[in-house]
Structure formats: structure tokens, C-alpha cells
Amino acid sequence: MNTDLLIATFNENITYIETSHPKLFSKLLALDNAVSNGHYQEKYEIVFDNGYFDVLEKGSGNYLYGKDSSEYASLAASSVGYDLVTNLFNCSPDHDISDEKLQYYQKLPLLEDYMSGMAEVFHFIQHKSLGKEKLQSLQKFIFFGVGLGLHIESIDKKINASNYLIVEDDLELFRLSLFTLNYKNLAQNATLYFSVFDESEEFTLMSEKFLEDSYEDNKYIKYFEMLSHSESSRQAFHLSVTNQAHLRFSYSSMLKQSLLPLEHLSDEFQFLSKGVTLRGSKLEDKPFLLLGAGPSLGKNIKLLKKREDDFIIVAVSATLRLLEKEGVVPDVVVHLDAFSAATKHFDLDSIDFIKDSICIFSAKTTPLITWRLDKKNIYFYEDSTKYKENSFRPSSSCVGSMAYQILLYLKVKNIYLLGLDLAVDAKTGKTHSDGHAYVKELDLSINAYNEQEIEYKKHLIEIVGNRGENVKTTPHFKTSIEAINLSTQMLKEQNQNIINLGNGAMLENTESSRLDNLKLSYSKSKPATLLGELLSKNLCRDSEKSIKSNFTKKLEKSAHAKKVLLSFNALKVKTKDEYKRELLVLVDTLTDGKEEELERVYDVYFRYLLPYIFDFLNREELELKEDDFTMLSGMIVEHLVRIS
Predict the structure, then answer these.
(1) How far from 357 is each of 6, 163, 304, 313, 473, CA to CA, in Å?
(2) pTM
């Protein structure tokens, strides 16, 4: 064993990690300090016996490998193949487009279904790649478990991937690998993503970054998992795959919703300005109760009826039918959903139930809702659009997390949460309170981690609850939990207090309590009227000239996009690699900055479609001619020009 070489490798790794992965370096430094100060007793040591390395667990006397680690590395490499059967994540749903289905989608209007702009491409790929079930190369690869890293080196020599996600739960074990694997050399030809000794949310963020970067190579991602490594990381990555935003929200929905604010601008509705706040007002210190549609709202509705005067009540639109039934009138209604199906939330016995309520609505709200209400009570915020220069633009994934974010932006000091459960009822499996338009009763026995394909709104995972016990949630709800926690981290000020009264998920930096335990002396007097006066002073007052200038720029961008697309369509391409390069140039040009509505629509379109195209171009023994590339470009360009 060459001790000098081990030390040199370690020092080179430390220098590389300090420069390129500072968060990981901080963890390693903290471990060294803990060992030096006697706060942590090392569990492992590297041993060299019979010509190979191993790791001895001091407490048990067990060895990590228990055999020739070089042989293990060789076997690991031989187990990694280019098939589409073993050890892989399928990161995009498969589409079987028959001739009949293709004709159906081709007849649909532009905004009717996202498949109308992709079915032709899928049909083309499907027929051209028949019998080509092997990959030519692996561009993204995941290692679950590091050990001494010898298998990482052997697998890299075989596949030469461009991106590696390296996952290790044990920080001390990872530190030992710094002696035996030169990560700096590995990083010469690949981008390395480290998730070492990460909390759940840290791992989720790193998984999302790994999926985000070079997303065109995401269709199939293969992995190697050490038997000694926990399955939890692989399961958590599976959830991240399921939670990809472009799978949950299509480009056609984004396009449709990006057009709706234009109607409200034309009808001269009120838009809130980005500086809107209650700071310094009479309402700043008052208790605001945010009502979500989770099961705990239904369980507490009778008590809420008795105590409604203790709060300024902010209700998400999905709660309205239950509140009307119980006679609890909200002071504020928050709405996000742009789809016409959302009108069900406003199918009340009498719309007069909320005639005096302040309505803080997304500018993407359908006119099928707004025409029912008094125009002077509606205040719009822009959500993923930028039509007015200085409009209020909160951003979140669901109406509950959006309403929460709005209250934080308004600088409300005392925020109470009820029904923002984001978990199913522990006894019934119900996703929402009775009366919700889309309440479901899920099977409590279905564990998402045991399923081959995770359904976003159906399968269940276990998380920590607001009362300290474990509760069950869905991947869909988990996304909202993460959105709320992110809002808290970014927006919550020290003087803002968040009290969670529900029975659902534990939310970060909130206090747990119960509605019947609260002792409040506030007695409200027309808070909706006062709030309306305050909001009216915070309207976005862009001049007509600035709005016209803004729209002129948008139209110019749209015209430029069309020119770029037609130029791409005229290219004569002969090889698969050349086509991939030109396609990525097109994507970068059309989505540059992603600040404008058109750029965002294109970005979601490409995030969905490109992995299929790059997978197609990566099939072994697939031969394409110039006419094939021309045909594929024509299909893509035709639809993108229609969008522009």
C-alpha cells in the first residue's frame, strides 16, 4: 500500500471539494473538528489486506466488502448495461401513438390538449425506433452508496457519463473514499453532484438540480446501488422524478393561462402593485386565520362557527361551499386555479354569500368566475405572467401555499392555519374536507415506495405531522409542503408568528396548537371594508404608454422567435450529433432568460419533448438520413410557430 499516494489523493480531493463543493467541504470540516474535540468517535478505518482495500467497522468487527474490493468494483462495472430493463428510472411517461390517435390529435385546436403539439413527433419516433431497445451511451448516472469509491471509478471507465449524482448517507464513510478515489480526476470529464449526509429537503433540492441540468438526457437515468446503502435515497429520487414540474403542468395549460390576464386588462380590473403591504395599518397586528380545504377544517367547522369573530378569515376558494353551508363568511377569498373546472368552487346556493368579501385572485382566473362578483372587490395578482411592469407577483404551486405566501408578503404578524393539512385523514384516507369539489378517499395501505409507477395524486408516503405523530401524504401534497417551507425560509420575518391548528403535515418554523386552546380577545368590525381601502391604495398604476411599450416588446420577441424557428427549419443536418447540437442552440435562443410568457411556454414544451428526442437519437444502431432530420424539425417548428 502506497501511503504517500493515499495522502496525496486525499489532499487533492479536499482542495477540489473546497473550491467546487463548499457546502460539502463545510460538512467534512465539521466532522474533523468534532473528532479533534472528542465530540465524535470514528466508527471506521481503512484496512489493506491480501492486496486490496476494505473498511472495518470498529464496533462490530464487520467489513464493508468482506472480499476483494477490486473484484467488487469490476463486478459492479459489468452489471451496468445499456438495456432498458434493469436499474433505471424512466423519467417521462411513455406514449403509444397509433395512426388513429395521431389523426385525432392533429384535428384538435392549438389549446385543446398538449398532445396536439407532440403526438406527431411521438408517432415518428415510435416507428423509426422499433427494434432499437438498447442505448448507445449513458449521459446521466447515479451512485447510491460510495463505499471506498472503487466501483465509481470502474463504472466511469466503462460508461464515461457526463453527469454523476453521488449519494452517500454516512459522512465518515464518504471521507474515507477521499483517500482511494480521485474525485478531481473524475470531474475532468463529468459534472459531479454530491448528496452526502443530507437532510430530506437537501436531498430533494440536489435531485431537482440533477434533473434540471442537461434535462434533455433525462428520459432514462441508470443507477448502481450498493447493498449496504439505505433504499430511502433511491425512493426519494423516484419521488423527485414524479414531481417534475413539466409533468404536472403542460405547456398548453401555461399558454392558455398566459392569455387570460389580457381579458382582465382589457376590462380594466384592479391589479395589486408589488409593494402591497399592511405594515403600519390597523390590521397589521390582527389575527388572520387562513382556511385550507384539508380534513381538519371539517373537523373544526362547528367550533370555528362559534369563534369566527375572533379572526380575520382568509379562505381559499375550495372551502367556500363548506363555509356557506355552516354560515362562516370569509373576509377574504384567495383563488389561483385558471381552469374552467374551478368554477365549481363558486357554485354556491347564493353568490351573495361572499358579496362583501375581498377577492384576491390570480390574473389567470377565468371570467366564468369574475363576472359573478362585484368588480370593485376583486384584486388581481400576476402569477407567472408579466404584463404590468410593477404588479404584485407571488408564485406558488397550489392555492393554499399561495394564500400563505400572500399573507407573508402583506407583513401580517399573526397568521393562524387551519385545514392547510396537506395530508390525508388518518382514519378515512380523505384528501379534503367533505364539500370539496374534488375530495377523494385514498387507500391507506398503498405505499408509494412499493409501487413501480408512483401516481402523483394517489399513492401515499409517510411524513412527520403537526402534532408530532406520523401522517400520510401524497407526492402532490408534498410539493405544496415544500413550497410553504420555502416561502417561510424566504419571506417570514422575525416578528411574524405562524400557528398551525391542523392535524396534517408539520410545517417548518410554525407553532402547533388547537383552535379550542386559543385565547383571543379580538372582535372584528368590518375588516373586509378596511382591507379593501388599504388594497385600493396599493394598486399597480402603470401608465397606458408603459403598458403599450411592454406589449410592443412582447410582440417583437414573438416575431423574432418565428424567424429563429424558420431558420432552424431550413438547416441541412446529416448526423445525430450535429442535430442535437443545433437543437440545443435553438432551445437556448428561444428560452433565454425565461422572463417572458412565450419563453416560459417554450421552456415547458422543450422540457417535456426533448428527453424523448435525445433518447431516440441515442438508440443503438439507429441510422437516420437528412430527410429524417428535416421531417422531425418540420413537426417541431410547425407547432412552435403556431404558439408564437
Answers:
(1) 70, 52, 18, 10, 32
(2) 0.86
